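Our working data are protein records whose layout never changes between entries. Instead of coordinates, the fold is spelled out as a row of discrete tokens. Here is such a record, shown just as it appears in the course material:
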Amino acid sequence: MRRWSAQQVATAAGAQLVREPATAEGGPERATIDSRDEVAGALFVGLPGEHVDGGAFAGPALGAGAWGALIAPEHADTAVGAPGTGAVLVADRPLAALQRLAQAWRRELGATVIGVTGSTGKTSTKDLLRGLLDPQRRTVASRANRNTEIGVPLEILAAPSGTEVLVLEMAMRGAGQIAELARIAEPDIGVIVSIGPVHLELLGSIEAIAAAKAELIAGLEPGATAIVPAGEALLSPHLRSDLRTLTFGEAGDVHFVSQHPDRVTIDAGGERVELEVDFTAAHLRYDLLAAVAAAVTAGVIPSGRLTFELSGGRGQARPLPGGLTLIDDAYNANPVSMRAALAVLAQTPAGGRRIAVLGDMLELGPAAAEFHREIGRVVSGSADILVTVGPLAAVMAETFDGECHVTADAAAAAARLPGLTQPGDVVLVKGSNGVGLSQVCAAIDAMAVA
């Protein structure tokens, strides 16, 4: 947006420009909704929240050097009189204005936009896809968990001029949310990595979950490409004849020709892709197929060594001082991703024992207890010691046949671990984000250097 004038920014957002910037050097570099952020050169967007209205912080943001502020009308007088040289834009609904601005910038960029969603694996697929694209295209991918109706527009607006491929992770908590993200991002390629029992409490059935994820397919323009798991019957009713559909997985259009611990060969719809890789986890290799399908569709034939970094809390295994290995998968959990993480734990070389610290899997509805009991059975074949965190995870103890420690919350689990771990142990930490198991990971890190 640097080349845009303040009036162009306002017009794109559907806002009124009520204070011109003191200089006419161009538009903002990006947008932010947090006045505590580094706001210099950014457009601060004051969004109304459940407890605090962000528009009240427009003045401090402008005083700190923000390019401008986009706020609701009730904050206009205060912002116009605030110190600083930034512009002031006013819109009745600042979030809708932010989304319109992001859509306009997406069109200005002219980049290939890839939308990635799925019940599990969407973040890993996004990370892998960036690794595949980076050597050949100027690529921007969603950071952290910026995958919502607020995060996606912010990530689009952070993409600089010259971006060739924009990879956007898309999350949902209910029906209609993926459709909203697709409307804003206008993806050229839509990737659905998986369909699984996530958000059952909100959506009620696996069919409803598939329909919600398939809003990405519905949001594609005719002639675009939908990339879906091979043989996923739940998505079949949502496929469209006016799209190119590419499948991945065993018997899919994109599938493995051969796999070795350090390299793979993939048939990508007739294109032969040979990659050197440093991971053997089955779920990551499955996600790799989806990522290769998207890369090839975007015009990139990957080759050579794949270099990528998983987003935080998504299964990174790291050796720690004192001989421990921590597998930090604390960001989120559901029955499918929990099984995948436990498979990784079982395969990770250990000089000592394997310890699974598992928290509640949230939003699973009436069947939550049975989902947790089943995971307890799976843990029996993957870990020597189980530490459960939270009331739902406690049910795992009923079906686990090894040494088990039941704790009420993350703080209690963090306090229990120093007396359990020994040099050589491998510790997996995984649970839904609401359980706060990052606290346990931090305790393990601190314990290792003590």
Remarks:
- The first helix runs from residue 6 to 13.
- The chain has a mean pLDDT of 95.
